[in-house]
């Protein structure tokens, strides 16, 4: 019984498509073109909500842009031409994946450089500690004077422990 | 050398703090326009119903400095800047052209202008794709937005949000006057 219920749950979850904002009346009849439109839209930022793609956004402007993307595709534009059409108007900002160019090198290389710096600091730190550790073996570092004092203290303690 | 290592976290903190401090002053809603200094996009908009003229075309933005104002009857902030637009039109500093954007019905904008006064020299109706996409061609992210277009038809400035008296006096008006000089 439980098993069957679970199986049904899995089937239902598998069938549940993530909700997109695309309305049926926006969709193109040609499934190939529609697929291309969806792929393009998923990578274009909605300029109203900013952290959503126009494919996910319910904003009116996102809808307009989805329709425009489909219009350009119907007019025979390539995917790249459609994306360029939008970038010409809104800048690289509309691309959810920033392009790789001089302006964005910090963005692409920054994390790697920071990781390398952190690694360098870490390695330097542990090497330093290892060197200090071997140089400072405690027995050798005690002077003759200190050794005598230590012995005296230990002897004192032994005396006290005696009943 | 040892000392420098102890200063490193401090240095990292200072750099991060500078970034955050700068970030506090940036408004994420204010996107830089890529259209600045570029020619006005091709325009051929039909008129708002009830207005006599032919709508708004690119040719109408040539020959003198103009303001292009994106508005809609649905837009509350547009209503807020409306009295100022009427004053700007009265002052005669530059003609204000309107793009009536994203109306549900073409008549909505006409009704709104009748009710609140009409500051526009010309108004084009942009119902959005598939009919037209003038607002998207202008890189508009919301209404109202106002563009300063020079006599050669190049976009020189974009103001996002309602124009306030301060913005008009300190930014737009001086800019128009400077651009109008021969």
Please explain how this structure is put together:
The complex is a heterodimer of chains A (163) and B (182). With 163 residues, chain A is mostly helical. Chain A is 65% helix and 0% strand. Chain A contains seven helices and no strands. Chain A has helices spanning 2-15, 31-42, 60-74, 79-90, 105-135, 138-141, 144-161. The model of chain A has no long low-confidence stretch (mean pLDDT 86). With 182 residues, chain B is α/β, with parallel strands linked by helices. Chain B has a five-stranded mixed β-sheet with strand order 5-4-3-6-7, covered by helices on one side. The radius of gyration of chain B is 21 Å and the shape is elongated. At the A-B interface, helix 3 and helix 4 of A face helix 4 of B.
Task: Summarize the topology.
The complex is a heterodimer of chains A (163) and B (182).
Chain A: H1 2-15, H2 31-42, H3 60-74, H4 79-90, H5 105-135, H6 138-141, H7 144-161
Helix pairs in contact in A: 2-3, 3-4
Chain B: H1 2-25, E1 44-45, E2 56-57, E3 66-71, H2 76-91, E4 96-101, H3 106-116, E5 122-126, H4 134-137, E6 145-149, E7 155-160, H5 165-180
Parallel strand pairs in B: 3-4, 4-5
Antiparallel strand pairs in B: 1-2, 3-6, 6-7
In brief, what are we looking at here?
The complex is a heterodimer of chains A (163) and B (182). With 163 residues, chain A is mostly helical. Helices cover 65% and strands 0% of the residues of chain A.
Protein traits:
heterodimer, A: 163 residues, mainly alpha, 7 helices, B: 182 residues, alpha/beta, five-stranded mixed beta sheet, two-stranded antiparallel ribbon, 7 strands, 18% strand, elongated
